[in-house]
Fold these 2 entries.
Entry 1:
Amino acid sequence: MRTLGALAVCCVVAGLAGGCRSSISGEPPPLVVLIGVDGATPEVIDDLRSQRKLPAFERLVRAGTYGPMRSLAARRLLEEDTRRRYASPILWTTIATGKVPEKHGIRDFVLPIQGTASVWMGSEEDPPRAALTLPEVVGREPFTLRLRIHSYRANGEQTVRLAMNGKELPSISVPVRWAEMSVLIPENTLRPVQNDLTLTFSRQAVPAEQGDSSDRRLLACELSSLSILDAGGQVVYSLDPVDERFSLGRGFHLPQGKLTEVQSVHWRALPVWSLLGSLGHPVGITGYWGTWPAYPVNGFLVSSRMGMRDHRQDGDRLTWPPELAERLEPLAPGQQELEELLARLHYADCDPPLLDDKTAVKKILLQDEFYFRIARELLPSMERGLFTVYFRSVDLASHVALHWRHGAELRPGCAETVREIVDQAYLQIDAWIGELLGILPERATVMVVSDHGEQPISGGGHHAPYGIFLASGRGIRSGEIFHGASVLDVAPTLLHLFAAPIPLDMDGKVLAQIFEGPWLASHPPQYADIDTSFTSDEEAQAEGNEEILEQLKALGYIQ
């Protein structure tokens, strides 16, 4: 099994003698710092820059290339609304992998725990039927349909007839206990684009009429998984009832399953730091979304749960190496620092204070302070390689108060100073960036990105389609305003800064326009046939995610 921390690569670059390069001969090894600022918005940054309130941003803009970065609208996996939205975990994973959500596997704020999902089938039809639409399947025929299924107890063992695209398949005898059943699909049965599968049942029953419960649904069988295998036994399609709830048609009840926050085991593509680590570059990751449980990297990783005190007290795998967590614990801010933050950022300038009933959201402020302290502590140890740190408090401030920044009527009991909540969040991030810049050698390259922007709505702020892209360092154009960046382009551009091969399966591109002509001529992008897909052998964990889910609820991301 490949892990998130390691990968062997093989270059196929035409005319490139000697295989893959991971640095340019005669040049000092690169040091690149990626700073993620969730929700940072070009219009707000430019307004504050015009008032000379963001000296660190201004320094980077003057010395580098800056502009809006297009986000990626995606349909959320568990959201019934079919509109495409800008969801942070999807976008930060896209930034880290250079891949669309369908490839990297993160498709919502919360995801089902593998193996816990199931869906009951039953209908008013006579005989009862259930139907679902499957996508186009590519592979070597003949294919095999595999189902994990059981019959409702009151029905006893029953025969279920199967049909694919109107063609009868062999029937299956479904027992009361869970069973895995396989059926051969005759050649030329599957079609391009989509395929329609129908299950016809012999019997169904209503639990309430059996004295089992008050459930009055018609139940025939329960399905927990469905997959299609090609002639070589390779799984070419897999359906999880919760993941694919919108492909379930008539005869399916609502699926059920345990949900958890995005975890590293959910990723289906290798992040840029794993690719660089496999080439020998040191990496340091701090607080990046969806990186818990921590996993081995060529350096250190401070996971997305490290910033939460409750998880540090009873959690495990908070960092890599594991002993790093104990070393970093003394840096954690406490309750007194939280009160000072609330006052300094004007969250306390309402009666009652704005976040009094949102304890989980308050902890985002402490989390950002902690991650900054960790970055300040660990960054000096990196003489080369990739370092990244993630901050979330601008997004929080925008959700709470962006409408007030744009002149909306204040809530009763709030002082005029709450109109400055958003600005103060940006000023705090700017001060942190300024401190980190003071640690770095002049040869370092700094990149600041956001996953999306924010726009004012009634009651706060909402995600908008353009975040920011800012890069400054050796070989990057100075004082340039740049248009055309996408969240898909960050990972391939980071790889290019290390003269590392860009995998052909990445959906983004190297942002060649940000580089000076002579530098680009001597550092041409190179590409490689690298499979960066990933599947973890581990299962997601439900324990300890209540605080994270509470944060997401408080911000309106989930119900």
Entry 2:
Amino acid sequence: MNRWQLYGVILLMTAPLIILIGLGAYYIWVSRQWWIWWLLLALLAIGYLLAWLWTRKVSRLPVLDTHVPLYWTDQDRRAWDIVQAKAQQYENVRWEDLSTAEHYTTLGLELSREVARVYHPDIDDPFDSLTIPEVLTCLELATSDLQEWVQKYVPASHLIRIGDLRRARRAWEWYQLGLNAYWLLAAVFDPLPTAARYMVGRGVLSPLFHRVRENLISWLHTLFIQRLGYYLIELQSGRLKVGSQRYRELRSQHVRTDSLPQGLPTPSVDRSGDAAEKTSPNIKTSSVIPEVSMSHEIPAATPDSVLAPLTVVITGPRGAGKTRLITTWTEESEQNTLPVRPVRQLHQEEVEPNLNDSLPRTITTETGETLQLVEAPGFGTDPHAADLQEAFATVARADLVLLVTSAVSPGRHWEVQWLQKYQEFFASRPHLRRPPLLVVVTHVDLLPPRSEWPPADDESASLGKKRTSIRECTEYVAEQLGIDVTAVIPVGLRPEQVWGIREYLWPAVLRQLTAAHSTALLRQLYTEVDTERWQKLGQQFQHLLDIAWNQLRKLWSKPS
């Protein structure tokens, strides 16, 4: 459909409406039912009032996609604040700027410099540290998103050309000149009614149309700045080195949102010591630990993509019960008492060799999540902390960390040292995201009174002393390690009397899956950039050699 065909369709579709308006106005005039006029004027006044209120501020427009990804670091968020501030500087952008390529070029360079200063404050040119494929990937992703938004939200955008925008602006200018000439001629023949109509048009309708047009222009311009700034952040952070296709693949594997599986136990706390309420028909909650925050939804698998597996590293001092925890966790899963599928053990070729020599166990939940449970070497026996360094080398590759400590351990000196090293390691690497950490307190069945097991559901009951001891133990562990008590999970691993896995460990782990996927996404992006750098170089040379060889074969095959 060309431009004139589009105009013809619009005219034919609006002609019946115009004819009906004319016939209706003639009928009201002939029948002298003036109250219809007042009703229509009242509706017009209400519509104008609402339009004036809703277009009074640009911020009332639906600014698209201001969501900050969960995997972004603090450095990325500072850069995003700069992008948002840049968008606010152009609230009064002119219509003429939208039709000039120089405006977008200048704006893109300014935004590139400001974002680059966050990551490379000593570099004058924002492109000095970038490669050509990285820049092309950024442009590809930004233009792809903009094209999708414009096709979706701007009517007839696939039919209107850039030249049409310029002609529309000129037509609007000629319309204003013709309208002024009309008012001048009308004032000569009919001064008073013309003056009344002029005041209504200039004082009421013209400001409204002008405000609507300004807000629409600002909306489109803000969308451009936000999309470009979003991928400039991904560019300067080094996450686009893998290319646009691989970048999209990794995001599809780690960025998903859905609700929690039904029937999942939600632990809650009553700090006064009263019994907690039940959150599902078959599961009782307790006041041992506070409720886990639900500020972020967990990822869920979709039919078009499969979520990447997550590595859950279980670390802790020797004798804390790491192996027993993994075994009990997987055995509980095999009994179908948890929201998981049957557990299998990985084959040797599936295991990542850098993590640990022992075979990890893997659990697949009903939401499609695959958790690989890896036990890190124990620490706490070497006075020079060499075993602590060995254990932390495994934790550095984790997506979710479970620090296991015994409830009967008094000092927790090694756990405190491990936490300090954990924080220092990721503080020195601002481009990575710290894996979520849960502290699992084992051997709670050995707390007094030992004969009371499993613990009663209610601390106020006559047999509720064990639950009181567990609650006090978790609070003491949180105080010793300097963490929030919501991250401390008590479990009892006594054979045939397991307690805490279903009630507390699984809910806490499932609620950390979004953060774990964010950690995995960043780690995998940067790992592939480092490991595939020389491999990609070899592939490029191999491709050039193949082309040269094919050309030589063609030359040699020609008859002399």
